[in-house]
Amino acid sequence: MSVIIKPTMQVKICDNSYRTKWDDFIINNSADFGLLQSWEWGIFQEVLGRHIFRVVLEDNSKIMALALVIKQPLKFGKSYFYLPRGPIVVNNELMADQQIETLEFLFNEIKQIAQQEKAIFLRMDPAWRDNDDLKNILKDSGFIFSGQVQPKSTLILDLTKSEGDILKNMKSKTRYNIKVAEKNGVQIDHGKKYFNDFWRLMEKTSDRNEITSYSKNYYKKLLEVLGESKKAELVVAKFENKVITANIVIKIGDWQVYLYGSSDYEYRSKMAPYLLQWQTIITAKEAGCKYYDFWGVDAEKWPGVTRFKIGFDETRELTNYIGAWDEVYSSLWYNIYNFFKTKKS
């Protein structure tokens, strides 16, 4: 499928020949680490049984914008489209008129696909920094603010600083807890062989914090798909040879990301989560990463986890994103969807 905008510009659905070009564009232009728009994230979604579309806008064969679109099924044969941390636009100069025009071209193509797939709306949750001017542009373009899907705020460490400076910016309690873990003999290791330990701890963590985790298959497939290219890794902390903390971390481009974490509350006095984070940060820095993303903080929704993360740099200003926005294709079905969603909640 292809729509010609002008002689040098076209919007189309990509095939596998675009894989390298697609990921190179994301690394060079994404406002965050770009994982949720990456080619492999699309493969992961397909492995989970979801239908995806990779839509790209080019000018003279140069990518200007792209979007990984995930089809989310609804009842009555309907669906909606979801763009996690997308779309991504060249240079991320979103306030420029040319970039807004670029997005309009892209969204027009997505809308045509949506009509064929019976999608009633498009939900995007881009990695664009929160600002009122951009919100007004989205409102003027017909988008409706729909809250939060991906984390609204996050803490991103600057790994170009020295280890000494990174330690200096931590809360004193965080530095102390790292030393406590070391004195307790906590050991760090990594590898897929610890997956069952991770899942055991994830079930405990979900029950303890009264949150819903993904399925065991979700994490297993994530590590299989993203682990093949060494983007995803399972890291653990052990006490007396027992795994008591386990995290899934992502390395992509200049970024290391703390994506999922779990721990055993019975061993909380060993302070293993602090040492595991610190060793992961050091490893990322040694590998040449420039940023360490803690992937979500929210003092109201996750107070304990947020305190833990912010402790690694109490001087750092949080990065705030613009949230999720909907472009409605069918007002009737969109209202029905929101009615049942509100009733269910």
Description:
- With 345 residues, this protein is α+β, with helices and mostly antiparallel strands.
- The chain has two domains: 172 residues, Aminopeptidase, CATH 3.40.630; 167 residues, Aminopeptidase (3-Layer(aba) Sandwich).
- 39% of the residues lie in helices and 28% in strands.
- Strands 1, 2, 3, 4, 5, 6, 7, 8 and 17 form a nine-stranded mixed beta sheet that branches. A six-stranded mixed beta sheet has the order 10-15-14-13-12-11, with helices on both faces. Strands 9-16 form a two-stranded antiparallel ribbon.
- Strand 3 and strand 4 form a beta hairpin.
- Helix 2 packs antiparallel against helix 8.
- The mean pLDDT is 93.
- Belongs to the FemABX family.
- Keywords: Acyltransferase, Cell shape, Cell wall biogenesis/degradation, Peptidoglycan synthesis, Transferase.
- This is Methicillin resistance protein.
What is this structure's SSE topology?
Elements: E1 2-6, E2 9-13, H1 19-29, H2 39-47, E3 51-59, E4 62-73, E5 79-84, E6 88-89, H3 97-117, E7 119-125, H4 132-140, E8 144-147, E9 153-154, E10 156-158, H5 163-169, H6 172-183, E11 187-190, H7 195-209, H8 216-227, E12 232-239, E13 242-252, E14 255-263, H9 272-286, E15 291-293, H10 303-310, E16 319-320, E17 324-328, H11 331-344
Parallel strand pairs: 5-7, 14-15
Antiparallel strand pairs: 1-2, 2-3, 3-4, 4-5, 4-6, 7-17, 8-17, 9-16, 10-15, 11-12, 12-13, 13-14
